[in-house]
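cron nightly-structures :: item 1 of 1
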Amino acid sequence: METPKFSIAVIGATNGLGTQNPFFSDRLSINSNFFQFPEESPLIGADDDTFLMYCKSQLKISARNSFLKQKIERPVFKIDETPRPSHFSPEKINERTIKQLDSKRKKRFFQEEFLSERFDETHKPEESSCLSWFIIRNNGIKSIIPDFELKECKLIFNEILTKNIKSHEANFGMCRLYAYEGRYGLAMIYIKDALQISPNDKLYNLWYAMLNMKTIFELDNISQKSLPSGSRMWCCGSRSAGQFSVVFPQLIEKLTIFQGEIDVLWCLMTLSLKNCLEIGREIENPRFYAAKIKEIDNYYGYVAWSDILFSEEGQEAKGRDTLRECIMQYPNRPEAYIKLWQYYYYNVKDFEQSEDIACEAFIRVCGSDDSEYFALLCINYAKSCFKMRKINYALKILQQKYIENPEFPIFLYHIGRLSTKSEDLALNGLAIGTLEECLRQCDKCWHGPIYYWLAKAYLNSKQHVEAYGAMKQSYKYLENSDQRKSHDLKSAMKSLKEGVSALKEVEEILKSESFLKNIDKCKRLCNKIKGLNKLSGEVLQAKILWSEGRKEEAIRELESSAYMASTRIMPYFELLRCLELSEDYLSMRTYGKEMVLKSMNSQLPCTTWVKANIIFAKILVKNNELDRALRVLKALAKIFPITRYAEIPFTLKLQESSTYQDLDEANNLPRNSLGVYSFSSSRNSYASISAPAYSQSYKDQVKKNTFRRNQELLTLLIGEDAPHPEETLESNPDLYENDELDVTGFKKFQNLSIEFEFNNEDLQHQEIMKPMHSDNELCTEFAVSSDPIFLYKIGKIAAMHGINLMDGLYAIEDYLSLLKFEKSIAMKERAAVKALLLKFIILCQLNNIDTAAAVAAEIDPIISQVGWAKKYELFKDFKARHNI
């Protein structure tokens, strides 16, 4: 038995053998009766252990000496009391320590649950709160609202204001939308209108204060160098004292009335931190407001304190530690992650630490569907990974999150931006494709930076004409907001202007009637263009030969250029145009197949691949291969982004197809719609417009979309040039390190290897693709196109040739539903009339006369106008044939 420490006195007195030690003789003589036992006592002749236990039982401890009492007495516990550690046995100590730790963990868990419930019920900011503007820096605020919500809500609020300009709710709605875009001047106009109607509204006054601070103190977040000199804003040092004294004292007086709200207190604290008002007289010390916030909610209180600590010299470490403690205590709340990530990423440039913080937020917070910071946290993680040179990993994160959440095209923007910044030519096609798609999906507030990075990507692929056009567009948007980028654009445009101007001049001469008179000038300019871009010069030279009537030479020149160009298919477009004019459809088919196969190169953008397939479908129609043309067009649905904003059942069924028979019979499948979306987002529902949650069918549909170029499918579709029977088509080896997404549980899609057997007659059931888990999926294979033109083409083939009429009808219905995404009203109206005409023709051929008559009545007033002559003749012919 292990000897207890408190028995050392007894051991010393007896030497452990019962023999008296002289050193203790005096002490033992004081109470000599202590060791005098009766003759019949069982301790006479007892062993040491028994003797020691008897001695221990005779010791008396004062009731006030709790320390010794705890050691000497066997503890007595109540049922609900945590046991105290025993000092008698290490095993018991360990057992009771484990019980104590488990008890503490359970207690902490229930405390967190209680705090979470209290937060959700009491202190969660309202959806219309402006607290996010105090948490997020710079342009990050644009990432937390879907672009379609911005566009559609603008239409709704504009319509309300057109009917009733006195609607303060609509004015406030417009204010919020422009604030999300970063256009604070326009937002101020609308919030002032709202305050004129409802001057004492707390929310409106709070937003007015926030917008004033954003416009006044913008230089805290944006460097003066990034702004044009004529539009630089003042800050506290250079600001007019008269202006300041007019604006903020009145606001502070109003906001002070509503000091029970977190966002109001945060606004006042931020204003106090600017040191532009006299502390104690005009405004309280920022610590006062932080303490008030902490009284309402501990978490927000500490995050607010971190702002104060970061603003004080030498206190950054405390601010950082405060945020770290917030993350430990409240791991499922996002604001501390965002603040700490911004500190590491922007302030101290510690990208390794920023990656750790972003990764933790990505795991803990991004799984929540109702987190308004969802997209921002994903983007932050990708940015940090990119800075750590994990390029493939960063792109995969963004790609997968876009597949799961296609209502956030901001993911596409960052895919394109990071791919361009990597300066890797293997990613250039991905960059151009995603940025071009961004222009279709993103709101105009993103067009400046989109065009900027698109111009860089075009330059990387030596597409100088396209780059010059993108630069002009970017400069138009960024001229008054980003001086640095504007200066870069001006310099780049100056270097390209001469060559691009020469190219445009030649094309204008070729279109003019005086072409033959200027042939020598054209040739001189053409040689000049070849110095800038050899391929563009060769294509232009072929155009000159064609215009001179030397058609065979022009075709040979284009054939040579097409053969030599490995990552450009521009010569094919011109070659096919010339062959079409020559009505050589068989040659068109041959070169069309080559074009489609070359377009599968990942260094070419997805938009080029889609264009090549649509042209090839047109060639198949000219060669009377209608079924194959329809299949090629239907296969493009696989890269169409799923949307909950429109009902497109036919497109969704095409996406579900796993065999060619499924493609052919898509109109026979049950048409279970995913539901029509109501102009709102499940992430950040807007004002009083409610948003439906993700349905299970929507989540299942996401897994069926491959978002990649289907080499295997289209190789089969184009026919004779299939590989050897024993050959298997596989994807190229990965271009980057093999990063594993070991914490995210991503759903992956893998290129299926398809073995072709020429003797297999039942290719109708050949699988074309299916979703699979894969850690080796190439990020360069990612492809997305929201252009619904393939649906219109399906409808046109069905209507004009009288085949697959139900396919054509369903395709046109989906196309009409998707036209709401078209930004140009004029183009939208014209496309709708053309689609309705096809629908009318199909309905006539299906003998659905009543519905056809209703469609005819709808388009008759428009199609009879000037500019629709051919279509009007076709329309009248079908009306006459079916007595409509």
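cron nightly-structures :: done
The radius of gyration is 37 Å.
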